[in-house]
Design a protein that fits this description.
6-stranded parallel β-sheet; 12 strands; alpha/beta
Length: 286
């Protein structure tokens, strides 16, 4: 089986590269330099030339606040490029695994969001990601959409890396305490994506939506506190409400994802976020 990964330079893409050597599949990795998804006309020729059996799309415009002013740029990567990927997958009879986000929800629920729950993105990032989901669904291509949340790794910019840096520079930090979700270590997500790609059940799906995050629930304040404690930082974290830290794009106050369907259909593992944080922090120190 030939697996093509797009967005190979991102957090999940880099974890997939590290794990690829442990599997028997043939892998091809495209980063932004190899295939720039903002060049829409280049997408289908590149995909058709590679002729993968499975495409894992990790590429995205993820600058949540900048997307409020750069809607066209976000839409190009998160929506229009996904539509082209889905068309290419359909032409090749390949399966597409597309990563999406908890930001398609408005955060007004008080139970974990199920894949079929009503979407209502509160910002342009979530809106463009939702448009990408719908383009994939409308294409009729085989594969699945995997919504995830609060992704972090030792690669790139993310909450854990930021907290570790600030924790070394400051004695005190204010962190939002009224936004609730589930952190996701990119390595755990990558392991799950490989399990999905290898599963015979994948080819039976037509843009089916699934959710994946680490198990357990916390606030950003809880997450930051654990990062400091478990990394040995003396920095004290103070809880604040979202109103005290205004951002151009609204964040969902509650975005816990119900992940039972992907566990049931693909037998993926979901370690608790605290256990994964411990393992991830060991990588930050090396």
């Amino acid at each position: 089986m030939h697996i093509l990964v797009l967005g190979a330079g991102g957090q999940v893409g880099q974890e997939l590269q590290r794990l690829a050597s442990q599997s028997a599949e043939q892998w091809t990795f495209f980063d932004r330099q190899t295939l720039d998804l903002s060049k829409i006309d280049a997408i289908r020729p590149a995909i058709c030339k590679a002729r993968p059996d499975v495409i894992i799309n990790c590429a995205a415009y993820t600058a949540v606040d900048k997307a409020e002013e750069e809607r066209e740029s976000a839409d190009l990567i998160n929506h229009l490029a996904v539509a082209e990927l889905a068309r290419a997958a359909q032409e090749l009879d390949a399966c597409l695994i597309h990563i999406s986000t908890d930001y398609v929800f408005d955060g007004k629920h008080y139970r974990p969001y199920r894949p079929g729950d009503q979407t209502n993105p509160q910002g342009q990032y979530g809106a463009t990601k939702l448009a990408g989901e719908r383009a994939f669904i409308d294409s009729g291509a085989k594969g699945i959409i995997v919504r995830t949340s609060w992704v972090y790794s030792a690669f790139g910019k993310n909450f854990v890396g930021t907290m570790l840096r600030l924790g070394s520079e400051k004695d005190h930090l204010n962190v939002v305490a009224d936004q609730i979700g589930s952190p996701t270590w990119a390595k755990d997500l990558a392991v799950a994506l490989i399990a999905v790609a290898q599963s015979p059940a994948l080819s039976q799906q037509r843009a089916t939506i699934y959710h994946y995050s680490n198990a357990g629930v916390c606030s950003w304040y809880d997450f930051a506190t654990c990062i400091m404690q478990r990394s040995g930082k003396a920095c004290v974290i103070h809880p604040i409400p979202s109103e005290a830290f205004p951002t151009p794009a609204k964040r969902p106050h509650f975005s816990v994802l119900d992940c039972r369907e992907i566990e049931k259909d693909f037998y993926v593992l979901r370690p608790h976020w605290l256990d994964s944080l411990n393992r991830a922090l060991a990588e930050y120190t090396h």
